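BUG: 3D viewer hangs when loading the predicted structure for this chain

Environment: internal workstation, default settings.
Expected: structure renders.
Actual: progress bar stalls at 90%.

Input used:
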Amino acid sequence: KVKSNNLDVKVTGSEVETEEKETEEEPTRESDTNILDVSSDYPREKHISIQRHLADLEKLADLKEDEKKPCPLCPEEKFKACYSHKLHRHLQNLHWKVSVEFEGYRMCICHLPCRPVKPNLVGDQTLLKMGAHYHCIICSATITRRTDMIGHINRHVNKGETESRFITVPAPKSSHEVLKESATDVQVLPNYSTPQKTDSYFNPKMKLNRQLIFCALAVLAEERKPIECLDAFGATGIMGLQWAKHLRSSVKVTINDCNENSVTMIQENCHLNKMKVKLNTKEEDNDEAIGDGEENTDTIEVTKMDANVIMHLRSFDFIHLDPFGTSVNYLDSAFRNVRNLGIVSLTSTDISSLYAKAQHVALRHYGCNIVRTEYYKELAARIVIAAVTRAAARCNKGIEVLLAVALEHFVLVVVRVLRGPSPADDSAKKIRYLIHCQWCEERIFQKEGNMVEENPYQQLPCDCHGSMPGKTAVVLGPLWSGALFNTGFLRRMLFEAVQYGLDEAQPLLKTLVCEAECTTLKHFSTHSPYDENKQEECGVYIKTPNISAESYLVHGKRKSEEVIRNAAKRQKSENSAEHPAFYYNIHRHSIKGMNMPKLNKFLHYLSEAGYRVSRTHFDPMGVRTNAPLAQFKTVLLKYSTPTYTGGQAEGPVHLAEDVQAGEQVQAAADGKAEDAEFLEDDKSGVAAMFTEDYPTHCAAD
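Structure tokens produced before the viewer hung:
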């Protein structure tokens, strides 16, 4: 009950009593019946400031031509009683025109003392603090600004809270959109693309990410079946539904989410795809089976828990983490109970920190010092893998990186788990610091060992520190220094992508296979990986259609000492064939005033010079090669043409004898001398070549 000097307003939703004096009781009762008629078609109680039409608002005042009436939405101190014509203008201009409309109702501005007042305010101070406000038609909130009220209502709509008061209820089915991806239907809310404002986030741009994860799971399903897999952050459940729908009895899918609305939507999407649902909403074993899958007998378990809790309670063969932002908070739980030779995949979308736009955040989340470089995407992948390695080592587990992809919107890392302290030690040793020259972008991992060197610049192949003033290099890291890809696993992923018709993933997987082997597409062969008699990863033989499971892998048992010794020998022999770390951007190192050759031709020239070379998915103009930067620039200069020659055919430039000698691929020291001569001949200054061009290329990247 809200009381002012001459006006008492008691709000019970559909009953309003307006009292000026004791003699006006009967007109008040008439107004009560009018309000009941107006609100009878609405299923909830509402404030008197919420009406459908202006006439309904005028009925509250009980306008009479020969009688003064107060405004039902203003206290007597703010607006005194007046005749009907003046009160009509007041209601129209001061309340109705500034209202907020929602589903046929108008939330008019209210000046009554409805908002709570600070307890230390008394007397006239109370009246001064009671300003205009709006009453939300959905909840009990009172909002002062009209723009804030519109945003408040929009948030209710985005969450589907449009049916009841004080209770969060999913949006009616008519407001859902049905999207289809890879023969899987999912219902989403209208604002499914805004993760901060919706419970059912679904990003169509992450389709490639979902296909890569599906291929990795399909490869694991060929090794052993059935496997238990977990989608820790289900949202709409699209990923887990694709797993169950295509792999069927090979997988036992568990979709988890801590949000109640998301869990409800996952259940509806399971029924939409003719899947049975096994509901588990508590940490205890309280399961409830919901059978609505007449055509498909596959069952999906849906849980409502915190992701850390479910990964601590249960063991899985395959775990996928895709939180909003960084995934470092869930790594310890993921590696706690994951089974031996299982797979953990994680998608990180905090690209502002990983791509060195927010360096302080990268230091806070990953404990890593980074700067913006030409190879910043690969740097981001190695940062994430280093965090994964440390989390696995804390659980006495090692890892082997199967796949690392860094694209515009996400960084995806897929690793295989190797149980035991020895694999954990081997993996931890691959976390090292990187020395990066800020002048020429040359880079090299620090040497192993704890001894402090007098001059760390000597490790860099370039001589920028000797020829340039000041400090020219920075130490980045700690980073993962090992391989980013497993060729055999990628080939089997490509085979699964072809089998299931995943067209978007096939070109990327072909690029990744070439990048893992450090070869060009011309030398790439797409033979079936199952033609080989043996498939080996991490020194462990994996079951293929041509191999019996008992010969090489016994599920649930540790490897014998002989297999471990053979694994060490194989890994030592494979290290020599490991792809080179990082890549060079051909635009970043182009020579000013020269037309550089086409990228494919340049790859051919480097290959003819005796270096391993390939393109990279990290950068469309990047070149992954084991050639030093000096030789990279020498070959680039040799086959570049001056811009003023116009129609001159592309070919080697006639240079001095010492530069032409670089055709025979001399040692790195000769390359340094040639590069130094080139820098001296550039009259425009080296600063103009690097400091002016580099920001432009950074913006283009």
